[in-house]
Specification:
This protein is globular. Helix 12 runs parallel beside helix 14 and helix 13 packs across helix 14. Strand 4 and strand 5 form a beta hairpin. It folds into 2 domains: about 230 residues, P-loop containing nucleotide triphosphate hydrolases (Rossmann fold, 3-Layer(aba) Sandwich); about 250 residues, P-loop containing nucleotide triphosphate hydrolases (Rossmann fold, 3-Layer(aba) Sandwich). Strands 13, 16, 19, 20, 21, 22 and 23 form a 7-stranded mixed β-sheet that branches. It has a 6-stranded mixed β-sheet with strand order 6-7-8-3-9-10, with helices on both faces. A 4-stranded antiparallel β-sheet has the order 2-1-4-5, with helices on one face. It is an alpha/beta fold. It contains 17 helices and 23 strands. The structure holds adenosine-5'-triphosphate. The site of adenosine-5'-triphosphate has 21 residues, from strand 2, helix 1 and helix 14.
């Protein structure tokens, strides 16, 4: 057997009482694509942070190309030839794409911009080098992160859920890229919750459960159910059947909405019309960067409509064009934003206080002051019901693993029992056990009469959840397509801007 490129022995790391990694052994051979699998909070991100020098292990050894390696910082890791793309972005919002990349990769702006364009074309990671990062969607920001990493020519490339916001076309392209990199002598360490992807791209896998290695295997030799069982320690539940329902009252109606943002990098919206009724889930499909962020901000009330456009958005039958976000919430609207650390939660605050952010109407305030007992009980309940793995409600939101924080935010909004729930990327970063629990919960709420609007880039998720789907492309929304009469390829055609010849369009 060839000597491993990277070899870990007995690596342990604790955060206070939490033993995030315990005695981890792992070998990454040269020219391999190696998956790290595990539930939310299993310790995957911690492990790769140790390999990338973001954190230092409490004990254990890291061998790199046969010699011991001790990394004090990511800069040292990069110099050694280890590159990483994070799950949470580390870009400066006020800088352009090329300026961000220049912080890590030396070179003239014009040359770097050219390389960014070339990499973008080659890998399906197109992004304007001169766009400001604050104007980019989550998906586009991730593209920048991947490009930045590839520009340092790493020997080991660590990718923390790289495909979670990529459109299906780009996932295939990215996989081609990764295979080409592997064949050229680069190893890839790949964290993903998408077991099919792991089977498609990885030749080795290490499974973590509760901070320990529970197995090393070849993922191509196991089916998805097997892998899921090894990961979560039990069988997956079946999807929840949606009951047939005739449409109830209109809870959200958008009629011919046009929107020209002031920001030159934002996507203008034109002629947006949609209706979500009680007892119905409507999905918005599409590749990120096609107006999702702008539409979400208009629905939530974060962006104010210009005066002449104020009769275009109705919630619970009421024109909400002139109402702010808090007033819309008082009508029975709840919202899970796609950007969970920026908008969904305040990382430095405890879960109790994060619960309070939107759930304060549930008697969590008394005479304008926090009712500590009720607020803690609410956070506790959310943690219990949504299986949020954390030591307790006083934990800072930023200390939760990505998937666990997402479960908390989705749980918090659902517990408000809204009449209209709007969820952007409901299961982004959530492991398959928890994702299926969230989807089952959404379908149950729909069956009980809630109106639900979902934005997701994952077609499979939309097909599992939604009664009908509309596709957002270039700021325009397709007509609604009844999910059970529609094939994914049809949605795919709308996603890239082609018109569907099919007549399966709702009146
Ligand atoms: N900075 C920190 N402070 C305290 N606890 C932390 C910190 N970082 C991680 N943890 C805890 O360590 C454990 C492992 O977290 P980690 O982020 O490595 O999990 P993960 O497998 O990557 O999860 P996910 O799939 O949700 O991203 C979790 O219990 C998490 O709450």
């Amino acid at each position: 057997m060839t000597a491993p490129l990277l070899s870990l022995r007995g690596i342990s790391k604790s955060y206070g009482q939490i033993r995030a990694n315990q005695a981890i052994d792992l070998d990454v051979p040269p020219r391999s694509i190696h998956a790290i699998l595990g539930e939310n909070g299993a310790g995957k991100s911690t492990l790769v942070k140790l390999i990338y020098g973001v954190e230092q292990p409490d004990s254990g050894t890291i061998m790199w190309k046969g010699a011991p390696l001790s990394l004090a910082s990511p800069a040292e890791a990069r110099r050694a030839g280890i590159g990483m793309v994070f799950q949470h972005f580390s870009l400066f919002e006020t800088l352009t794409v090329v300026e961000n990349i220049r912080l890590v990769v030396p070179g003239r702006k014009a040359d770097l911009a050219e390389r960014i364009r070339t990499l973008g074309r080659d890998f399906g990671l197109e992004v304007d080098p001169f766009a400001h990062v604050h104007a980019l969607s989550v998906g586009e920001r991730q593209r920048v992160e991947i490009i930045r990493c590839l520009m340092t020519n790493p020997k080991l490339l660590i990718l923390d859920e790289p495909t979670s916001v990529l459109p299906p076309q780009s996932v295939e392209k990215l996989f081609d890229t990764l295979r080409r990199l592997r064949d050229g002598g680069v190893s890839v360490l790949f964290i993903s919750h998408k077991l099919e992807e792991i089977r498609a791209i990885c030749d080795h896998a290490t499974i973590l459960r509760g901070g320990r290695v529970t197995g090393h295997l070849d993922p191509r030799e196991h089916d998805v159910h097997d892998l899921a069982r090894m990961m979560i320690g039990r069988d997956m539940p079946e999807p929840m059947p949606a009951l047939a329902r005739s449409g109830g009252d209109k809870r959200l109606e958008i009629i011919g909405l046009d929107y020209r943002p002031d920001d030159p990098f934002a996507v203008p919206l034109s002629g947006i019309s949609l209706t979500v009724r009680s007892g119905e889930i409507l999905g918005i499909a599409g590749i990120s960067g096609n107006g999702q962020t702008e539409l979400a901000a208009l629905i939530s009330g974060e962006t104010e409509l210009p005066r002449e456009q104020r009769d275009r958005i109705y919630m619970m039958g009421k024109d909400v064009g002139a109402l702010d976000a808090a007033t819309r919430r008082r009508l029975g609207f709840a919202f899970v934003p796609e950007d969970r650390l920026g908008r969904g939660a305040v990382p430095e605050m405890s879960l109790v206080l994060n619960g309070l952010l939107t759930a304060h109407p549930l008697k969590l305030l008394k005479h304008g002051l926090i009712d500590r007992k009720n607020a803690a009980a609410f956070a506790d309940e959310c943690i219990r019901r949504y299986d949020v793995r954390t030591p307790g409600p006083e934990t800072e939101a930023g200390a939760l693993s990505g998937g666990n924080l997402q479960k908390f935010i989705v749980g918090r909004e659902i517990m408000l029992s809204p009449k209209l729930l709007f969820v952007a990327q409901p299961t982004w970063g959530v492991d398959i056990g928890a994702a299926s629990a969230i989807r089952r919960r959404l379908v149950t709420l729909r069956n009980e009469g809630m109106a639900i609007l979902v934005i997701s880039e994952e077609l499979e998720e939309l097909f599992e959840l939604c009664d009908s789907i509309q596709v957002l492309h270039n700021g325009k929304l397709s007509p609604p397509l009844v999910t059970r009469d529609t094939r994914p390829e049809e949605i795919g055609r709308y996603m890239i801007g082609a018109r569907s010849p099919s007549g399966k369009v709702l009146a």
